[in-house]
């Protein structure tokens, strides 16, 4: 599964092919289509849109693999996503305008593997620490009103 991890992180770190057809093929080599992400089915086109948004938000993207645990049909990886914040960063609080700052986002992906491809994903990202490091949230400030 080491090859799968390398290909997965590379797919999200490196620039995607400009044409969508080639990008769809690249995602379908690694993911079933659709693939449930946190329980929500996402197509290869949806994943490409997420990857393009990530690349618009962060320059010089790199992944730092911290930990991996695997079974025959599961893979869990803990990693940092590093980059320079150059465009709107999608978050649970809404898009964060570019700050020009370096940012690191801690994440854990729990993947189900079926026939060599990712068939289900649970993603846990530490957006709070990233938002604090970008100065979007300030410790001790008044919390946002509930929606």
From TrEMBL:
InterPro entries registered for this protein in UniProt? Cyclase_SnoaL-like (IPR009959), NTF2-like_dom_sf (IPR032710)
SUPFAM superfamilies per the UniProt record, alphabetical = NTF2-like (SSF54427)
GO BP annotations listed: polyketide metabolic process
Q: Where does the source fall among the domains of life?
A: Bacteria
Indicate what this protein is called per its UniProt record. SnoaL-like polyketide cyclase
Q: In which organism is this protein found?
A: Frankia canadensis
